Please model this.
Amino acid sequence: MYNFIGYGIAKLGVGIGLGLIGFGAMNGMSRQPEAISKLQVAMLIAMAFVELVFLLTLFLGKGLIGG
Amino acid sequence: MNPNEIFSLALASSEAGKEGAEHHHSLLAVFVYFAFVLAIVFTLLSVAKKGFSPRGFKGFISQCSEQLYLFIENMCVGTIGAHGRKYIPFIITFWLVIFFSNVVALFFPVAPTADLSFNLGMALCSIGYVQYEGMKANGVFGHLKHFAGPKLGLAMIPITLMIFMIEVISEVMKNLSLTLRLFGNIDGGHQAAEAMSKLAGGAAGVHWIPAGTLLVPVKFLTCVVQAMIFCLLTCVYLSLVTHHEEEGAHAH
Model:
């Protein structure tokens, strides 16, 4: 039961993080459309790292790693 | 056994059930994949037997392959630098393996990349190759020195030691992060589809209706992005250990 609350809190933080990354990337892209390809790559890498935090939370919560 | 029956067996294997039965069903699903792969390979061979006509080279498959090559070349050269061209075969292999394994996940409830061992194997290949390239570029001791961080005074030896240990741990954790990212995204897609199907079934008053199929477009996006991210991160790791070669053409 408590782990579901934990997932919710974790997803809240990750959602804020992903939103900030998207916000920053969108701003940059609209200001400099010729840099879109570079910005997209950097954005995807940053998103992958933020997403990983949630996935780690999920696996630790499920006990997939800890047994 | 007709294809429908095989498919329903493969479908059943995703649901939590008895250990033995599940194992048997996933083995069956693997055979189904083998059949698909063989069918595709034989079709390609029968097409190729007709010879290299110019029509064949303008075909859909060859154009897709060329686009893929350009995409990966762009990624390698853009991320690693001018010497990144020699890593294209390595990266393109990863991309193809991951992408097609992910596409399997669209249609079947089991997939190679929704399996921790497969992903860990690929991550070990990737990071192992990065270590090998780092040792080739900087020498064994140069590569190890890379872990120790900046040069500090003699009094700072404990700090240097600590940085070294942390860097080694982070190098090991790179394996775990590559594994878990891919596994979490693909298996998460499966679980979300399953949960949606159960939810819709509950609303309709039956056990299960395939409403999770509605997630296929999102899952396809995940397939492409995850394959790209795995390759991109491998490129970034490669560029981190080999970027001494270029003579400050563009400082990072």
